[in-house]
């Protein structure tokens, strides 16, 4: 369970705030994460003007109260309630004069895929939801903050994975879905084959052979099951392996990484990797997340 005194012991009392300063390279990315205790009515944000960056915000009240208007409807944020907002949007949240301090935990995310999903979450749950202190999203939010505080978020890839995991946990907590049908056996067989042979120049022909279908029928059935063509799925697996290898050892020669991902031509590997991530393999390997000072400028807070 998340307790205020736990955050205090971590040295996060008062206006503790950490800001992750890197460009958005993936469809899901952390923007900021932190804990704050606001005491003055100047804490007041208009969702249409508060930021020049499109983003989404989860803000969980730990103590005190806050005020929110969302598309003309007013809400009071009580302990154990979270507000789900995106920007720019017709919302405003603030600490009214003479109200007790408002203490909260927050996670802000960016990236095209998360910003596509977030308004769907708001529409299905509303902008204010009740959430237990020991719920998975709240515990994950605290865990992300601890990692940021301790310097544990060391790459854009890690930050992207944390952001996507957090948003998926919100969906799982707030919008439970019916169980998905299991993957067809032929897809499982093909994926097992791919994972075991990513260092080889395999392609759709070899994937089809592993499935037992003709190339035409395999391509059609695979696309229907996974939502991606076999060629795109295979390239995604190669890029995932490349990211993993670059994170494990940034000094490993790029040519060796290319070879282990099934590329005989290192120049082509670099071209494909840059298209997928926005960075060259060398630049990606050197990416490190920075944590801002606790006295970050006010405009960086959510």
Give a quick set of tags describing it.
single chain; four-stranded antiparallel sheet; Arc Repressor Mutant, subunit A; alpha+beta; disordered C terminus; 302 residues
Explain what the structure shows.
The chain has 302 residues and is of the alpha+beta class. The protein has two domains: 4-177, Regulatory protein AraC (Jelly Rolls, Sandwich), CATH 2.60.120.280; 185-285, Arc Repressor Mutant, subunit A. Helix content is 42%, strand content 19%. The chain is built from eleven helices and ten strands. It has helices at residues 4-9, 112-125, 136-149, 156-174, 185-196, 204-211, 215-226, 230-248, 254-260, 266-277, 281-285; strands at 17-19, 29-38, 44-46, 55-63, 66-70, 73-77, 81-87, 91-94, 102-110, 128-130. The strands form two sheets. Strands 1-2-9-4-7-10 form a six-stranded antiparallel sheet, with helices on one face. α3 (136-149) packs antiparallel against α4, α5 crosses α6 and α6 (204-211) crosses α7. The relative contact order is 0.14. The model is unreliable at 13-17 and 288-301 (pLDDT under 50).
């Amino acid at each position: 369970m998340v307790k205020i005194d736990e955050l205090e012991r971590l040295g996060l009392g008062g206006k503790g705030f950490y800001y992750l300063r890197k460009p958005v390279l993936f469809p899901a990315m952390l923007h900021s994460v932190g804990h704050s205790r606001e005491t003055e009515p100047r804490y007041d944000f208009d969702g249409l003007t508060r930021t020049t960056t499109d983003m989404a915000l989860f803000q969980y009240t730990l103590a005190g109260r806050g005020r929110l208007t969302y598309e003309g409807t007013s809400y009071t944020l009580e302990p154990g309630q979270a507000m789900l907002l995106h920007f720019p949007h017709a919302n405003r949240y603030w600490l009214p004069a003479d109200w007790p301090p408002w203490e909260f935990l927050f996670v802000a995310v960016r990236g095209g895929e998360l910003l596509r999903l977030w308004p769907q979450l708001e529409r299905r749950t509303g902008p204010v939801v009740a959430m237990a202190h020991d719920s998975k999203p709240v515990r994950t939010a605290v865990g992300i903050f601890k990692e940021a505080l301790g310097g544990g978020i060391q790459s854009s890839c890690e930050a992207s994975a944390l952001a996507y995991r957090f948003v998926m946990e919100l969906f799982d907590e707030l919008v439970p879905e019916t169980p998905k049908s299991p993957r067809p056996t032929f897809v499982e067989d093909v994926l097992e084959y791919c994972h075991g042979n990513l260092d080889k120049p395999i392609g759709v022909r070899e994937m089809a052979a592993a499935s037992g279908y003709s190339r035409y029928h395999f391509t059609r059935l695979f696309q229907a099951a996974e939502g991606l063509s076999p060629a795109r799925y295979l390239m995604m697996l190669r890029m995932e392996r490349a990211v993993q290898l670059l994170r494990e050892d940034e000094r490993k020669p790029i040519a060796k990484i290319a070879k282990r991902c099934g590329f005989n031509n290192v120049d082509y590997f670099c071209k494909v990797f840059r298209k997928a991530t926005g960075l060259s393999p060398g630049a990606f390997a050197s990416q490190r997340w920075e944590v801002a000072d606790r006295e970050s400028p006010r405009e960086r807070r959510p």
